[in-house]
Design a protein that fits this description.
globular, about 525 residues, mainly alpha, disordered N terminus
Length: about 525
């Protein structure tokens, strides 16, 4: 007589511990980068403010200029105790720091929930003894822990610098709570949408709307700020008589959205979302017959988002107008930039253009990394198995990388020129500042070339292009102040570009930098032709 077989059945959360450890191992390097980077957003502000405004009179002047500037309030938040370094740190860092925490949570949740379902990894995982709730619960636990570490790192870094304990803790708690709320939103978006891209789009839109509500509310009577998770963190009033109940509001909202995500998970099929994707047309559009058209179809959303964001970013810088002297106080831009710049206004806008150009290079790197994601997801392989060559496929995306970078950089300068021209009554600034921004385009292309070079020769470390961008930021912001050696400064392509409009345009370094960018792109294509394809 044969004994009846025993079948192992999984509880709803079976396997959560294993998946959590797996997620932590997979994310160990990105998590360190996110937490260290966001902590530096806060800590570096304290260091820079102490160095730039050594006297109380300098801080008082800075407080007067910022507290009455609606554009600065819209960008940063409600002005409180701006005549102190601690107050300035909270004012200048909290909104951006909380937004970074939200982005970290969005990518963590997306990668370990919807992306795993989309690529089929989740199906492989669920072929073992794994409960239905285990994958999203593991992603949520990692996100909760990562934000706790982030908050602790921010708090300890500011306390160790000498800022008040309670306010530093409020800033850390604010970042943690914002990360939890947007992590919960990403978890719900992963159940509603049927693709990773849609999950990111929903969460990113929620983050953008939150920032906009906070900005409008802070400039107005403050009511709209209470509809924004970013506003709740700033409502804790760091360094200005802290109040803690807004943190509880964030936790309750995060839990509520998390429960809603669990209810949606119970009502959808595996691999599908609550919203079914629309069927595509029976025949592809004429524009999709070429590699450039296909790349445009894949990357247009990224380009539209960056174009709008950089245009608005440029507009915010332009609103400062000619009030640069009041805003900067005794800051010596010549010392920061390492050159004699002449007019303070021109020096400020030369610096602003350089900052926007480096930010725009994040778009260039993101667009370049799409080549790697297309390869790893297996989308490139069937295309390249036809008569389509690797060079044509790569060049199709490269056109979007380089052309899109030009659009993003030009719009940042144009946006700056629009508002600066309106405030000063000088419409010619639209042309001047657009041209100044485009001067940095070859440097932005160099970072795109580095991304393509890594894609061709070292695809496993393709994301190291972000480290190159971080190096350029350090050189621009601190290179002259910290007296970096000249050879080290010159490794940054942005350091070789003339600081227009503060200095005259010099075509020689611009052309040389363009040549370097094109050589890097050509080398990357050459390397891609000679290596094997890789897929997940």
């Amino acid at each position: 007589m044969t004994a009846p077989s025993r079948t192992r059945t999984a509880g709803a959360f079976t396997g959560t511990g294993v998946l959590t450890r797996f997620a932590l191992r997979r994310e160990r390097f990105p998590l360190v980068a996110w937490i260290v980077g966001d902590t530096l957003v806060y800590w570096s502000q304290a260091v820079a403010l102490d160095a730039a405004y050594p006297n109380q009179s300098d801080l008082d002047a800075l407080a007067r200029s910022m507290s009455g500037n609606a554009a600065m309030i819209a960008m940063a938040g409600p002005p409180r105790v701006l005549d102190t370094v601690a107050g300035q740190v909270a004012f200048q860092s909290s909104a951006f720091g909380m937004a970074v925490a939200g982005l970290m949570s969005m990518f963590l949740i997306g990668r370990h929930t919807r992306a795993n379902e989309e690529t089929g990894r989740d199906e492989l995982i669920r072929s073992g003894v794994v409960g239905r709730y285990a994958p999203p619960t593991a992603a949520a636990l990692v996100t909760v822990g990562a934000n706790l570490l982030l908050g602790a790192a921010i708090t300890l870094s500011l306390i160790s610098y000498g800022l008040p304990v309670a306010g530093s803790l409020a800033l850390g708690v604010g970042a943690t709570c914002a990360g939890w709320v947007f992590g919960a939103i990403a978890l719900l978006a992963a159940q509603v949408s049927a693709s990773t891209r849609a999950c990111y789009a929903i969460t990113g839109t929620a983050l953008a709307v939150s920032y906009l509500l906070r900005a409008v509310g802070d400039v107005g009577n403050g009511v709209l700020s209470w509809f924004s998770p970013l506003g709740w963190g700033q409502a804790m009033r760091p360094y200005d008589g802290e109040i803690w109940w807004p943190a509880g509001l964030s936790v309750l909202v995060a839990i509520g959205i998390g429960v809603a995500a669990a209810r949606v998970l119970d009502r959808r099929d595996f691999g599908a979302g609550l919203i079914a994707p629309r069927p595509g047309p029976a025949r592809a559009a004429e524009s999709l017959h070429g590699t450039v058209g296909l790349a445009w179809r894949l990357q247009r959303g990224l380009l539209f988002g960056w174009a709008v964001g950089m245009f608005l970013g440029g507009m915010s810088f332009g609103t400062i107008g000619d009030d640069v002297d009041d805003l900067l106080g005794d800051i010596d831009l010549d010392q920061i930039l390492g050159q004699n710049m002449g007019s303070m206004v021109d020096a400020f806008y030369a610096m602003a253009v350089a900052i926007l150009a480096i930010i725009a290079s994040a778009y260039t790197i993101s667009a370049g990394l799409r080549l790697r994601s297309e390869e790893m997801s297996g989308h490139a392989e069937p295309l390249l198995s036809t008569g389509l060559g690797r060079v044509r496929w790569t060049v199709g995306h490269l056109v979007l990388v380089l052309g899109g970078s030009a659009v993003v950089v030009a719009l940042s300068g144009f946006g700056m020129g629009v508002t600066y021209g309106l405030i000063t009554g000088d419409p010619a600034q639209m042309v001047t500042l657009t041209g100044a921004a485009l001067t940095y385009l070859p440097a932005v292309w160099v970072l795109g070339g580095v991304t393509l070079l890594l894609f061709g020769f070292a695809p496993l470390i393709n994301s190291a292009a972000w480290l190159v961008m971080a190096f350029c930021v350090v050189v621009l912001m601190f290179g002259a102040t910290l007296k970096f050696p000249g050879w080290l400064m010159s490794l940054s392509p942005f350091d070789n570009i003339p600081l227009v409009p503060a200095t005259a345009f010099d075509p020689v370094p611009v052309l040389l930098t363009s040549a370097v960018a094109l050589l890097l792109c050509a080398a990357g294509i050459f390397g891609f032709r000679r290596r094997d394809l890789q897929t997940n």
